[in-house]
Specification:
binds zinc ion; two-stranded antiparallel ribbon; globular; Rossmann fold; 6 strands; alpha/beta
């Protein structure tokens, strides 16, 4: 197995998520960029200026690793979306496994990438991270969430209709959930929350009682006060 892994690394070397350099570190960052990544984990909220544990922006979960605001955070997410990187999938899967008590969950679920993007990039990074989380924690991976075709209609709708329509962007397969009541829902970025809200809505309809969301990055809604300060 170890030989295969070395061979795989030779053909597909691990790359730094921030600068793209080949790296031999056990984390998906080179020695220089780890210095950019670590501060991301303790950065203040870009909307209210408070530390992450004190920030009350938005209404959703606070279970995320870093704010999606600095150039390093944006580069990292862009690399994850564009380049297949087993080292990075393992790293974030392990981070989630360390973060949560696995006894809290019956299954781990994720919003699948669009078919168009899977075709374009050849992989679904969020699924891979969920898979690594599952492998490390022993919580079963459940591919129960599916995209519906409502996304295409979104453009033609009013804002209120759009919000209502957005809740139907996913459906959850109750058979695949096999009675799971408490799930960990993993995604890469939470922006408006519409994807995760739609997933949670679909999961509840399929009988899930407790949903814990976990994203790598989070964009808090910009508060007017801070908007005004900038001008
Ligand atoms: Zn780097
Ligand atoms: Zn905040």
């Amino acid at each position: 197995m170890r030989f295969l892994r070395s061979l795989e690394r030779l053909i597909f070397p691990d790359r730094c998520l921030i600068c793209g350099e080949v790296t031999r570190e056990r984390v998906p960052f080179c020695k220089d960029c780890i210095k950019e990544f670590v501060p991301l984990l303790s950065a203040e909220c870009p909307a209210c200026g408070k530390a992450a544990h004190e920030c009350r922006c938005g209404s959703g979960t606070k279970d995320f690793l870093f704010y999606y605001s600095s150039p390093a955070a944006k580069k990292l997410i862009r690399s994850l979306k564009h380049t297949p990187d087993k080292n990075a999938w393992e790293f974030f899967g392990a981070t989630a496994a360390n973060y949560f008590d696995k006894r809290r969950f019956d299954a781990v679920v994720f919003p699948p990438r669009t078919a168009k993007n899977i075709k374009k990039y050849g992989f679904d990074h969020v699924k891979q991270i969920a898979l690594e989380y599952s492998r490390l924690s022993g919580v079963p991976l459940c591919c129960a969430l599916e995209r519906t075709h409502r996304a295409a209609e979104q453009k033609l709708l009013s804002a209120t209709q759009r919000r209502r329509n957005a809740l139907g962007l996913f459906k959850a397969n109750a058979e695949k959930l096999a009675g799971a009541k408490r799930v960990l829902l993993i995604d890469d970025v939470r922006t408006t929350g519409s994807t995760l809200n739609a997933c949670a809505h679909a999961l509840r309809k399929a009988g899930v009682k407790q949903i814990t969301q976990f994203t790598l990055a989070y964009t808090p809604p910009v508060k007017k006060k801070y908007k005004a300060k900038k001008v």
